[in-house]
Amino acid sequence: MCKVIVLDDDQIQQLILKKMMGKYGITSDTIFTDDGVNVLEFLSAHKNEKKILPELLFLDLNMPKLNGWRFLEGLKVLYPELIKPLNVYILSSSVDPKDVKRSEKYAFVKSYLIKPVTRERLSSIMENMAFV
């Protein structure tokens, strides 16, 4: 079963992703949250537990508390300690090329997606990760 974290403060985006991921039968192992600090603590606490760590993380950039860029910096420090890869997909309403370019400096960021995510794009992600 695929484990996913959706880190986004937009409740509507969370609902959209939840419904679309339901098609792939992965909603039961999906964590929806807007707290990047808690996600970093969760990943750190379970960094050696393959069965608990997620394979996929959808990350919003503009969030309260800890924004997406600060989350990525925290993950960059933690990432080498994770027992398995974590594929990060940025979700953003920003079409600024500077944001896209900035996201490319993180090797674990697989793609920069403009909200809202389409079914086709989510399907492509799931197929590439062999979840379907």
UniProtKB/TrEMBL annotation:
Keywords: Phosphoprotein. It holds the Pfam family Response_reg. GO terms for biological process: phosphorelay signal transduction system. The keyword Phosphoprotein applies. SMART domains: REC (SM00448). The modification 4-aspartylphosphate is found at D60. This is CheY-like chemotaxis protein. The lineage of its organism: Bacteria, Pseudomonadati, Bacteroidota, Sphingobacteriia, Sphingobacteriales.
